[in-house]
């Protein structure tokens, strides 16, 4: 009970009060899973693509991840869901290293 009051006072301090189930939270979590799935598929197909195609595919995935990271930062700032940033940031850094390594050693 005291945890709920502490969480409630924390949310009120940030100016955001969550009432009931949050459907946007579920959609956002599914977007993170789709992000990882797309990243894995691009990494699997990367060796079979030409240099230009791999750069376009990798750039698109990185753009998708950076967009998702910006949305996560807005959501974390608004609702206090900072834990959402970790899987997106990890995937973005991993993809940057994979694309950079592929381009350098192609």
Structure description:
With 106 residues, the protein is mostly helical. The chain has one domain (27-104). Helix content is 80%, strand content 0%. The protein has four helices and no strands. The mean pLDDT is 76.
User: Which oligomeric form is depicted?
Assistant: single chain
Percentage of helical residues? over 70%
Distance between the termini: 58 Å
How would you spell out the order of helices and strands? HHHH
What is the number of helices? Answer: 4
Low-confidence stretches: none
Structural domains: how many? 1
Main sheet overview = none
Strand content: under 5%
Helix/strand/pairing class, anyone? mainly alpha
**Structure summary, number of beta strands:** 0
Rg over alpha carbons: 18 Å
Transmembrane segments: 27-44, 50-71, 83-105
Keywords: Membrane, Transmembrane, Transmembrane helix
Can I get a quick summary?
The chain is mainly alpha-helical. It has 4 helices and no strands.
Keywords:
single chain; 106 residues; mainly alpha; 4 helices; transmembrane helix; membrane
Q: Topology of this structure?
A:
Layout: H1 2-14, H2 23-45, H3 51-79, H4 85-104
